Amino acid sequence: MKAWEKNVRTVVPYVPGEQPNQPGMIKLNTNENPYPPAPGVALALREMDAEALRLYPDPAASDLTGALAERYGLEEDQVFVGVGSDDVLAMAFMTFFHSGRPILFPDITYSFYDVWADLLRIPYECQPLDENFNIVKENYKKYNGGVIFPNPNAPTGIAQDLTDIEYIIQQNQDVVVIVDEAYIDFGGESAVSLIDKYDNLLVVQTFSKSRSMAGMRIGFAMGNKSLIKYLNDVKYSFNSYTMDRTALVLGVEAVKDEAYFQETTEKIIQTREWTKRELKKLGFHFADSCANFLFVTHEKYLARDLFEALKQKRIYVRYFNKPRIDNFLRITIGTDQEMQALVDFLKAYTAQ
Prior knowledge:
- Helix content is 35%, strand content 14%.
- It has ten helices and 13 strands.
- It has helices at 39-47, 62-72, 84-96, 113-119, 162-170, 225-238, 245-256, 258-281, 303-312, 336-350; strands at 26-27, 79-82, 103-106, 124-127, 147-150, 177-180, 201-206, 219-223, 284-286, 293-298, 315-316, 318-319, 329-332.
């Protein structure tokens, strides 16, 4: 080891899903939306003035925070935006998890949480899900420095009742509780309705899933005005211009088209329910997902073998080689045609 390497901050990094680029592939491994963004997004992109890119964007992102505030019935200073929900969550970790006490999150959950905690030297304790992969709300009554969990959870797709979420918040009013709602638009009940009741609640959402803009990188947080101010204080101390001009313009257009948003999310929900029925016929087992993916297992076939067989046919799903979930596959809901192709392959595979 070289002398300078002794001072390097090392961490085991988050590993994202594969991003293959093959003709004719079916990509069901990163929970992207199979439909394009709202039509107004494409129109605004075509009409953008490239000359404006020589100027810095609005550091307060006022047009976008204003549009989001109107959409969710909040004040503008109750909304914070960032470069995808990962950026927003990382800012929240830096801002709110600073007590020296361990933060709490599930043992099976979004695998970026422990990466941020390790990177920022935040102690943490993973709380085990029950045998059916549900969050055990009583596990979050213990001494801690903050709480974070997704709803619906990832990679299981299971949504917690809002009463359970409120119970966790009630038991932790001396710390910040973050509810990560990346998939809430596909099922479950948002905790946004609790923001005015609990000043320690931060709700985080993203444009990457239900708004078809994973490639644009827009995320946002909603909460008490004081929480948002603290987030902005950290942002301005880290990078004043987190959102570029293109993202701000296109983000507003995506929020404005509520009819298209409702139409495409409903399409995905309907396709998800059809896929559930078809996979059950083939002997697959899974929780009742409220997300845009299913987390499936089969008694007769190993998940790793299925993963490799699907990959050979250029059908990409997600496999996690981790305790408790190493015989499951996470399958993103694509178009009707893509899911039919997946089911057809699995029918042939299980008939061998």
